[in-house]
Amino acid sequence: MANSPHGGILKDLYVRDEPIQASVQAEAETLPYVTLTERQLCDLELILNGGFSPLDGFLTQAEYTSVVETLRLPDGTLWAIPIYLDIARSELDKLGVSTGSRLTLRDPRDDQPLAIITVSDLYTPDFANEAEKVYGANDQAHPAVHYLFNNTRDTFVGGKLQAVNAPQHYDYVAIRRNPTEVRALFKKLNWTRVVAFQTRNPMHRAHRELTVRAARMRHANVLIQPVVGLTKPGDIDHFTRVRVYQAIMPKYPNGMAQLSLLPLAMRMGGPREALWHAIIRKNFGATHFIIGRDHAGPGTNSQGQDFYGPYEAQDLVLKYKDELDIEVVPFQMLTYLPDTDEYMPINEVPNETKTLNISGTELRRRLKTGAPIPEWFSYPEVVRILREANPPRDKQGFTVFLTGLHASGKEAIARALQVALNQEGGRSVSLLLGETIRHELSSELGYTKRERNINVARIGFVAAELTRAGAACIAAPIAPYDEARQLVRQQVDKTGGFYLVHVATPLEACIKNDRAGVYQRAINGEIKGFTGIDDVYEAPENPDLSADITKTSISQIVHEIILLLERDGYIGDR
Prior knowledge:
The protein is an alpha/beta fold. The protein has 22 helices and 18 strands.
């Protein structure tokens, strides 16, 4: 028999509101609306399907304050993470929203109405207090605190919800199960004792061993329930991770385990988050929940120290075990013993026993460089999937971004580099010259600072997409402003390599090289806002390479760029 929901009743609003679905759907089309953020979408789905029981709406001010200060709802029910609907006050005023208003909440992906909220509360939160009380520190090195201060709007809207439509998913639909469906699955399989395992990372041999050990210890079956909503920035994408989970499921004995995805927006809140995860698994019917080392930990703070202790999450959840009514299965980190070919909790390893381990950082290094990943660490099927998603450097894309004054020689360098990379082979090479982009993508733009930055942002978008596809991209705009260049670096860095090359040819030489006489027209006042004459060029402070064609030949500059690419493994055999 599945575990009872948190609070005693599964608040499945889809089931509750099914008799009035047609009228609610019609009303939703007539109401003012807001479009949800990605985090709000995740939160809403789990409120509506009962995953966040006993919640049946976004927290009111009294509920929010109670959760932040006491880890409880006002009626005393345990609840660890504040779930709120944040909307800008200016937008609420524009929509005429006040207490008693009804507001449609729409899906940001397809604009479908998902729910109606009846507004019972509009309030201004104390972000600093939430950061301290919920996440343990007002430190923006914590991803949830960073989100709080940089992405959260200034007004929270509390109120009850009515379900209109479930969010439409197109990926892994067969294993996206809500609490009602998971509970029905347990009943069909005659599972009465279920240990749930939460993960946001790919699973390897140690994870399989950990979950099987938990099943043995508690005479239970295993629910693998990975998060496919928002996780920690920089995590492996959920498509890759789910392929890994699907590959590892056959490694379990037949009938032992099931895979079901959870559309949760994690906060990386350590101890409080572990308590929240336990409550969610209880709502899905699990009777046991695995909490390992540094559960939902965000890493280090701005002083380089861990935000939470390695077993602080276990301690907090165990503190409330009697009223949680879901048994915690605490685990220490597992380590591999090569002499006996087995995994063992690190606290059970005899003294002087040889152990092996591969950290997440080391795994990422091996994936990037193509270094071998031993079978004692992971299954060949898993490694193959991870290598497909994380090809070695010589298969990844990169962007070389040349910036400099007009007629500085950056276009000539870009063309020569294109030839050199085509000669090298191994990937397609795309050339984005400033004038070409102006003509093809930005013909409507002028030359104000704002319009120049928009133009550079478009170049950055194209460069990032080419880099993502494994191509070599060479961009050569003037790009006079440092802020815009840094934004391009941030875009491209997410997908591959980025190299900023400052073509630092002096203005006098650029004027001399300008056969079209554009500089002279600017000097004569015929052209206004010309970079280097009456508009600023902000020289990069830390370019990857700085070059001056009056001192160095174009072929030598190209060679130095090639050396940078070879150093980092993007070209050449190693």
